[in-house]
Amino acid sequence: MIFNIQRYSTHDGPGIRTVVFLKGCSLGCRWCQNPESRSRQKDLLYDARLCLAECDLCQQAAPAVIQKTLNGLIILREKIEPDHIAALENCCPTLALTVCGEEKDAAEIMAVVRRDRAFYQRSQGGVTLSGGEPFMNPQLAATLFRQCQQEGIHTAVETCLHVPWRYVEPSLPYIDLFLADLKHVDERTFKQWTDGSAKRVLGNLRRLAAAGKNITIRVPLIPEFNANPGAVTDIVNFAADELGVKEIHFLPYHTLGMNKYALLHQPYLAPDKPLDCPALLTFAEAYAKQKGLTATLRG
């Protein structure tokens, strides 16, 4: 199950890349900018701003879960079944109601990937699997990475590494670059903000480092969570001293994905304003460089 294939990307690894976004994630980060990626199933998104009052095509297609009112739609999400989703796909003429998620096998995805082989070769680019969490689909991930390697295409993965190691291991020989999130090293804080285990992430990072893999650490800087000198120091120390990585990216928090929560009828529990702390960014970059890391700030 994927939710996008983005061609001509320049922000998800070296060169020009094709990014394949897989659905499914084992974390529940409050600030997640792709909440539609969390579920491994198809999701129904509704934008009331685009809804036509005189139209009832969606209600006709799935009357058991769609109710039409003067103010728009009421979607009985707890009753949605796969057959309702199928009936609603491509139903709405204004795209007020859309379905996120598409089933594709490795052959279909590779057919898209191969279209841009010339761009990969000229720019030293390649393919990046993203998500969600790509390793939630371990068999598909390993198949795609292996086929790319066999065809001389550079491979990268954007991962939170919050999965059992056995999900990562089949792909290990075929991945050139890990773009790995390191959100926090404190177990209690990590659990509170992500519903996950920092110990699992740190353990997987140690295994990657021991395997000699090329790792770039990425740190989303989130107000009230880790956007403070103490948390940044701990993260950088772990990356430099325990992992021995050479590169770290700091990603200041933004709220560009906030509207997606409304489309999914989900609460947004993260801060409602972007990170505005130039002093922290200066400190993070300087401390990382002090520890021998190449530090990059990414918007």
Automatic annotation (TrEMBL):
Pfam families: Radical_SAM (PF04055). Keywords: 4Fe-4S, Iron, Iron-sulfur, Lyase, Metal-binding, Oxidoreductase, Pyruvate, S-adenosyl-L-methionine. One of its GO terms (molecular function) is lyase activity. Its cofactor is [4Fe-4S] cluster. The keyword Iron applies. The keyword Metal-binding applies. Belongs to the organic radical-activating enzymes family. This is Pyruvate formate lyase-activating protein. It comes from Pantoea alhagi.
